[in-house]
Write a structure and sequence with these properties.
The chain is of the alpha+beta class. It has one domain: Jelly Rolls (Sandwich), CATH 2.60.120. The protein is about 15% helix and about 30% strand. The strands form three sheets. It has a six-stranded antiparallel beta sheet with strand order 1-10-7-12-5-2, with helices on one face. The structure holds succinic acid and fe (ii) ion (FE2). The site of fe (ii) ion has 3 residues, from loops.
Length: about 210
């Protein structure tokens, strides 16, 4: 193994080119329909109210939201429209069934849209009740530089270029790994007419029924 080959955290799964072009296009159509009902909005950080650089929306019974007043949480309605999130597209539920190795369906799909300058700081996905379910993450559109480390913020992180159609899973020991997006690479994909990057993360929020 070459010395500079990145060592991915245990349990982290990297599935490059998992979705072919037709599957990517079909997902973009699904997401367009979701966004038409549940528009992208600018989330703000807890306490400081600082706007994030990505725009967000969700589909599924629950959606992840954040704002200055109430911080990170899941809720059943869109913060701007007050309406329930649109249904989870069947194509996303099917990817979860194929890859998540978890008996229950996903409850939330967070949709992040990155313009050419958007990024996301290192964080853990820890607002869910059941960490035995993975977070399944789909990249569409422009490539990005993704970083993933360990469960301590100070752990060494490795960088991975994620391209359109790639899927990664934070599962097992890497479920609570710190991760973030350093930058996108504008102009690296023709999937989205106006450029940019879409990231979809499927999550199980509550513990399964006993
Ligand atoms: C996230 O951690 O919510 C986004 C990850 C990504 O954009 O690839
Ligand atoms: Fe995340």
């Amino acid at each position: 193994m070459s010395a500079d080959k990145p060592v991915l955290p245990e349990g982290f799964r990297y599935l490059p080119d998992y979705l072919d072009r037709a599957a990517q296009e079909a997902l973009v159509e699904d997401i367009r329909a979701v966004v038409a009902e549940a528009p992208l909005y600018v989330p703000t950080m807890p306490r400081t109210g600082k706007p994030m650089s990505v725009r967000m929306t969700n589909c599924g019974p629950l959606g992840w939201v954040t704002d200055k007043e109430r911080g990170y949480r899941y809720q059943a309605t869109h913060p701007a429209t007050g309406k329930p999130w649109p249904q989870m597209p069947e194509r996303l539920a099917a990817l979860w069934r194929d890859l998540a190795d978890y008996p229950e369906p996903p409850e939330a799909c967070l949709i992040n849209f990155y313009d050419d300058t958007a990024k996301m700081g290192m964080h853990q996905d820890s607002d869910e009740a059941d960490f035995s379910a993975p977070v399944l993450s789909i990249s569409l559109g422009d490539s990005c530089l993704f970083r993933v480390g360990g469960t301590d913020r100070k752990d060494k992180a490795v960088s991975l270029k994620l391209a359109s159609g790639d899927i990664v899973l934070l599962s097992g020991k890497s479920r609570l790994a710190y991760h973030g997006v350093t930058r996108t690479y504008p102009g690296t994909s023709t999937l989205l007419k106006n450029g940019g990057r879409i990231n979809l993360t499927l999550r199980r929020v509550r513990s399964p029924p006993q």
